Amino acid sequence: MSQISLTFPDGNSREYDAGVTPAQVAESIAPSLAKKAISATVNGEHWDLQWPIDGDAKIAINTMQDDEPALELIRHDLAHIMARAVQEIWPDVKVTIGPIRDNGWFYDFDREEAFTPEDLGQIEAKMKEIINARDAVKTEVWSRDDAIKFYEDRGENYKVELVNRIPEGEDIRMYWHGDWQDLCRGPHLQHTGQVPADGFKLTHVAGAYFLGDSSRPMLQRIYGVAFKNRKDLKAWETMMEEAAKRDHRKLGKEMDLFHMQEEAPGQVFWHPNGWTIYTKLQDYMRRQQYRDGYVEVNTPQVVNRKLWEASGHWENYQENMFIVEVDEDHAREKTVNALKPMNCPCHVQVFNHGLKSYRDLPLRMAEFGSCNRYEPSGALHGIMRVRGFTQDDAHIFCTDDQIEAETKKFIDFLAGIYADLGFHNWTIKLSTRPEKRVGSDESWDRVEAALGDACKAAGYDYEIQEGEGAFYGPKLEFVLTDAIGRDWQCGTLQVDPNLPERLDAVYIGQDGAKHRPVMLHRAVLGSFERFIGILIEEHAGKLPFWLAPRQVVVASIVSDADGFVDEVVEALKAVGVRAEADKRNEKINYKIREHSLGKVPFILAIGAREVEERTVSVRRLGEQKTSTMSLDDIVAELKLSTTPPDLR
RNA sequence: GCUGCUGUAGCUCAGUGGUAGAGCACUCCCUUGGUAAGGGAGAGGUCGACAGUUCAAUCCUGUCCAGCAGCACCA
């Protein structure tokens, strides 16, 4: 038998027989290590203790101290343990797949009846039994025919299909947790007892399609989360509670920002407080766009189908459009219109009106465009995913040669805005050519390179999303990470040579001939609705002062102070601060509590002493201590604070 | 759109086959109180909509609408 050389993390190496397993290697180092071992890392690959090593390699034996492999194994083994528990309780349930995911795992089952929350408790209890039984994990590589026969005999038709989908040349690996068997890539732990019994929890059950295919029947997916110990699990639970407190739907109600109701699903009724945020944000964006060389336009909501046919939306996007039929008097047939789902075709109409010269390019045409899309009911989510929304949309009409410079200019523009709005964690994704596409490979090469180069020129790295571009061109996506680590796609830039072609947009070049411009679809916030939702959650409702809908409440402590309260409110309003009086017959404690819960950044309390001295007692949101300031000083401070960041 | 769950007062929620209740909010009265809930009284609901079963439906059944979780979707 040939010898191989294994190199350990400390740089030492040892000779072993070829085909040695990490379990044997660990045993050769120390029996205690062999016991503690959970897996190995062989040449950077996560390796099961039972898998043979055939050639020279770098090897590290992993234990529960190694977070990444430990969590991966715990979660993956729990997926199997859960599936085993389910099949032990309900033997007729068919298993499908169960990968790890986020902080845990899920497993999809085919079962007639729905799993109930009580079932989850029963499954959890059974899982703990399995863990305590410390059943050994075994693995073998099987032939395709044997695996298929095995699953056919058991009636596990989903597994048969999965085996068939494994590419030629790849191992078909079978795993056993005790007597329970599953098809799995691995790696896995040594035995079920290595899973911490108190670090996991089944969270919920929901429907999911087999292999994500919506044309197939729906399975039931049970989700779980798992950590190395009870403490980490508790920490996760606490974080989830924090996230729930920030939910924009909850805060929107508490802060009286907006509401939605069933007569207008997916559309927002903005209340005065919410609309204040919206208009302040819009004012800010309008100033930014003006400075960056955009012109602003406004275009119709209800547009005849002829334009949508010309643009291609009628063919490709119709099921997402609100169709409006108008029965005009004496008309032979109804006029068919659609609410615009996007602004681009209308912007081309503006571009086409009057002959454009190369001197007009790049032409940056912006609109706070109200769009309506008939989104699938299941996609709606608060004000984040709606059917009626306003984009901070713009289309840059330019030449091929200008794409890169315009893209860089846009990235700089967007970066400045995100910084002003308090977002410093964001990344860029570049989506490249999809399988179904128009245009030559040379042109895709050129445009993809232009976008990538523009990112680098602006000083940003980007991640490539292979094949995720639109059929007509590649795109950049700008993804924000919020305060609790969630990602949100907001900004976007898409290169589109297709629509100018379809709608026959032209400009007169230097040579006197007609040429086709390219369009860059771009947005910074995405939609006001969504972005405001993100702002609310990012700041947990405590928006930056200049965006806070209610900025100051001036509260009387005794009714004798009412006159001065009004005077303070007027002085603040005179400098543009959103101030209101609270002269109600309530104690100051009551008022403080109510306005603090309402996330008002400043409460100015006024009693007899303040009236006497013409001062205010200042309480800032989130602080217990108060300070006394003169009327002039507080007015000056708040006047500065309410100034948007770009005007300071 | 699909699977499952939910829909009772402005909000958060309890409850029953014989047409409903709490706390907070609201209105009024008492209280003028110094930094996160002072006290009392009052008003407020076609129990999501429409059918069906029943002597009787908010409760049981069906359909629809909306919301929630996830999946699918998101040029």
TrEMBL record:
Zn(2+) binds at C344, H395, H521. Residues 1-63 form the TGS domain. InterPro entries: aa-tRNA-synt_IIb (IPR002314), aa-tRNA-synth_II (IPR006195), aa-tRNA-synth_II/BPL/LPL (IPR045864), Anticodon-bd (IPR004154), Anticodon-bd_dom_sf (IPR036621), Beta-grasp_dom_sf (IPR012675), TGS (IPR004095), TGS-like (IPR012676). GO terms for molecular function: threonine-tRNA ligase activity. Its cofactor is Zn(2+). Pfam families: HGTP_anticodon, TGS, tRNA-synt_2b, tRNA_SAD. The keyword Zinc applies. Its main location: cytoplasm. It catalyses: tRNA(Thr) + L-threonine + ATP = L-threonyl-tRNA(Thr) + AMP + diphosphate + H(+). CDD domains: TGS_ThrRS, ThrRS_anticodon, ThrRS_core. SMART domains: tRNA_SAD. Its EC number is 6.1.1.3. The keyword Chloroplast does not apply. Keywords: Aminoacyl-tRNA synthetase, ATP-binding, Cytoplasm, Ligase, Metal-binding, Nucleotide-binding, Protein biosynthesis, RNA-binding, tRNA-binding, Zinc. It is found in: Cytoplasm. Binds 1 zinc ion per subunit. Residues 247-544 form the Aminoacyl-transfer RNA synthetases class-II family profile domain. NCBIfam families: thrS. Homodimer. Belongs to the class-II aminoacyl-tRNA synthetase family. This is Threonine--tRNA ligase. The lineage of its organism: Bacteria, Pseudomonadati, Pseudomonadota, Alphaproteobacteria, Rhodobacterales.
